Amino acid sequence: HVQLVESGGGSVQPGGSLRLSCVLSGHSRGSNCMGWFRQRPGKDREGLAVLWIGGATTTYADSVKGRSTISQDNDKNTVVLQMNSLKPEDTAMYYCAATAAYCGLVPRLWGYWGQGTQVTVS
Fold first, then answer.
1. For residue 10, what are the contacts with CB-CB under 8 A and spacing of at least 6?
2. Mean pLDDT per 10-residue segment, the chain (122 residues)
3. Cα first-last separation, the chain
């Protein structure tokens, strides 16, 4: 059973940075891809950045491209999202997800989710 635990959220001023971490435990076959998503108040969940664990291939949404980096920590069970130049519109609940085969930005196609970590930019 795959489990994901996020950390690193918090409050930051516009222009600031945050580093979100996601620790994966459980069945490794369910986690060839890991990604970060967010849900802003009153909005649908959206994909931000995904990482194909095996080949380190990454994909970013336009909303964060150039401002964020997804990477694996030295411990391959941890995926990090470094976010810079944060804006008030980045305020959201941020979720980590994992999946076995799909490695894109469509949230409904991901199988495993963490509980989320809140990011507030103001």
1. 18, 118, 119, 120
2. 93 98 81 93 97 87 97 84 98 95 93 96 98
3. 37
